[in-house]
Amino acid sequence: MEKKQVRFIIRQLIEFKKLLTEISIIVNNANEQRIKTEISSILRRFRSGIFSCEERIEYQSARNFNILEKTFIEISRELSYAETKEISGLLNQARIYNAKLERLGARGGKIEIALKQIQKNPKDKEKSQGVQVLIEEAIHNDLAFEAVINQLMSASRKIKKMKSKITGYQQLESLAIMIQDYEGIIVLYDQDKLRKEMENTDLFLERCNSPNPEMREIAKREGAEFRQKARRIPDSSGFGSNSVDYLENRMVDHVIVGYCEMPTRHRKEVFLGAYEILRIAAKPGMGLFFLELVLSWAALRRAPVIIDRKETSPAARKLWEYIDTEKPYILKYPAALLKYPEAIGYTKKEVLELFGPAVFGLSVFDENGFPAGLPKQKVEELKQKIGISEMVEGVSYLKKEATRSTNRVIGGIASLDKAYYYQGEIKTLGLFIKRGIVDKRDLLPLKMKNAGYVFFQESKARSGL
Questions:
Q1: pTM flag (> 0.70)
Q2: Domains of the chain: which residue ranges?
Q3: How far apart are the C-alpha atoms of 37 and 45, rounded to whole Å?
Q4: Predicted confidence (pLDDT) at residue 445 exceeds the cutoff of 60
Q5: What ranges in 300-425 are assigned the alpha helix state H?
Q6: What percent of the chain has pLDDT over 70?
Q7: Is there a cis peptide before residue 334, judged by omega within 30 degrees of 0?
Q8: DSSP 3-state of 307
Q9: First-to-last CA distance in the chain?
Q10: Could you please report the per-residue DSSP string of 19-85?
Q11: Disulfide: which of 56, 336, 343, 464 matches 315 by Cβ 3.0-4.6 Å?
């Protein structure tokens, strides 16, 4: 079942109960003109989507239903007859309740139609009672849906294969991304855990200011534990540092999943206009997925990505070698210029004019950011064009680290002198960014940046990505 099919199973219990209360008050206490005005207001909410605003937080049961459907479809052939019968039976029950909720709560559904009838005849008690009955029916279906989902979750977790799949999907279902384009910062985080830590922070502040000495003592101990970690971030001058605050500290431990900084995009002639990763880290097991999200973000700007030209952690080196040798769906430049110049904003004619025919077949970049192996005259032309001094050289990992036995084409050190392009997670990236929009308020973007920076530094100490 697609998400649009469960768009009304979103905070609907609260919304339906609120609507029931409003209708009861309106029809019993208001004059005819007031009833029309209030009903018009409610109908506008229906048309804009009581249950489908852009900044909604999806109802947990709806999320779980999507996860269970995906999981069941994916591994149904591996389940026993009894397991299949139980899970499919519960899923069918959930579908029935969902269909009823659609008929009742959707725009153009029974409740909206009934409200329009009240608007036309404000004093018709029978119609007023009818809409209240419909709302009560919606509340009943909502509660029944949630009960079935709880049964489904319980039954599914008893099946080992489903349990592991559900855990993986649940993790993805709560992920969001916050991006600061001007600094090239991408933060992948757990939205559900962020909510929890914001609540924990509010409770901590309440205890700090409580008139109860016992509560203040608890807050004092919590504050001591927080200060003991002594986590710091660079200040705005770049020369000093500041301590992270209580929420940022909690975010480092529980919220941040991945952090990346790509403040530099090279000019088109250098590394083919790639973004250069300055810092990147992810939780164990999430490295490849997070990197694919980062690559997809760059792909939206028709750019590949290169690793930091100054230093690279052992873990990042291992991941780069892995995508170079084991992931053919990720394009590797400059070699991919032969078939896919358009992906990164070039035409074949532009490639030939800029680098000459010798570029086709070259696999890595040199210390200047040009495809390594171009004729010397072409290299000098490019240097002159972009103003690189012959005495000032960048970094080539192969030039710096290679030995006679080093493979200079694929894997190992060679993988660090390539640019990578991938757009396969653009859809997922868009979903995560959309989720993150709701958190782009107050100081949260700054807190994400601060917590992400500390997360990177501590990941780096544990060997990076």
A1: no
A2: 3-173
A3: 13
A4: yes
A5: 314-326, 348-355, 376-386, 397-401
A6: 81
A7: yes
A8: coil
A9: 35
A10: HHHHHHHHHHH--HHHHHHHHHHHHHHHHH-TT--TT----HHHHHHHHHHHHHHHHGGGS-HHHHH
A11: 464
